[in-house]
Amino acid sequence: MSQAPSAPREGSLEAPTRHPLDWQRAEFWDPAALERELERVFDLCHGCRRCVSLCQAFPTLFDLVDASETMEVDGVAKSDYAKVVEQCYLCDLCYQTKCPYIPPHPWNIDFPHLMLRAKAVAFRKHGAPLSAKLLSNTRTVGRLASIPVVVEAVNRANRNATARGLVEKTLGVHRDARVPTYHSRTADKRVPHDDDGTDATPAGPTRGRVAVFVTCYGRYNQPQMVEDLVAVYRHNGIAVKLIRRNQCCGMPKLELGDLDSVDRYKRDNLPALADAVRAGWDIVAPIPSCVLMFRQEIPLMYPDDAEVQAVKAAIFDPFEYLMHRHQAGLLNTGFKQGLGKVAWQAACHQRVQNIGPKTRQVLELVPDTEVVAIERCSGHDGTYGVKKATYGFARKIAKPVETRVKQAQAQHFTSDCVMAGAHIAHGLGDGREAEHPISLLRKAYGI
């Protein structure tokens, strides 16, 4: 039987506690132990149902329970647990914004980490389809697709209905899904020189010199975003250099449950990041998911790794960094033009960093600018929003955001997650494109 939600206990206003992901312990990989924990947590979730509106994982679970003979979790076939797991895309919103039973509550529910564990056990036992492995290998795909001779053919094929039909059959990418454009003039070419950082001015937790973890998407798909970030930072007297040799942050592999690849990427990335931190540089990444990997997911996988923890302490969201500078009186507020009304979708992987709406706060410093915040998931979430199996669910999740954007009647639509922005813009279907907020800020500066 489901346990009824308990009354708030003394001390329940304590800050949430995120326990390390104990992935190197044998019990983590034990299918029987995993199954028992899935049943325990699913039973508690069934008794609460507070998260039903967040994503498709919870409606899937509750539909399975309601269709069972007992109408309880004990009536759900264990083999159907995987149907719930495959709908979770690890946005973390249930943990951070909804669940009343997260640690330090004695029920100790961490739904995202349980789903990650289930994905990891399934991946180690069964692997994944070649299409899923390819889609999650963003750096390799980006490197190949951005070759000058290849890039136009790739972009042209992505706009061709016949080619998209073939891709749907072979890779499982829905023919109607918005897929990214590739650029041969990558971010490294758009930012040809690095600053030496000798004239940096510290402020608060920032040191005034930033090493940019460019990200796969920033390098190959949205190099203008990186160029705009560098221009805005330099306009504010912040020294900038690019980390020019890096692997993927590992988030796509994490979402697949491929923890061995996450481990390999971590070992590839960490030396350059840790060297930069030791040399007095802060780290910034223009994609929220990449910041989250180094700020939360990798530190939880390696809680005793001093270099991992040093990088965690030194990495910032771009607008979080700018707000620290503003609070110290160092942000350039000499804006040349207002932005009017801006509809801003707060990306899930930015919200769960618990830094507050820093993007909105910085944009609202621009005169004649109103920011309408939309705190709902876009439904894109890595490959979830493009796969044939889940594209319909992704469009359903995005619908409330699209409605809010239309109601705002704003001059600009933006999201810190460029993939979420593109997914929402595609659903709007009115020809508008999402703009990255750092690009809007550059426009306001007139630089």
UniProtKB/TrEMBL annotation:
Annotated segments matching region Disordered: 182-204
GO MF term list: 4 iron, 4 sulfur cluster binding; metal ion binding; oxidoreductase activity
Q: Does the keyword Repeat apply?
A: yes
- Looking at the UniProt entry, the stretches that span the membrane are none
Q: Which residues form the Cysteine-rich domain?
A: 210-295
Q: Does Plastid count among this protein's keywords?
A: no
User: Bias regions of kind Basic and acidic residues — which residues?
Assistant: 185-195
Q: What is this protein called?
A: Fe-S oxidoreductase
Q: Which organism is it from?
A: Rehaibacterium terrae
Specify the taxonomic lineage.
Answer: Bacteria, Pseudomonadati, Pseudomonadota, Gammaproteobacteria, Lysobacterales
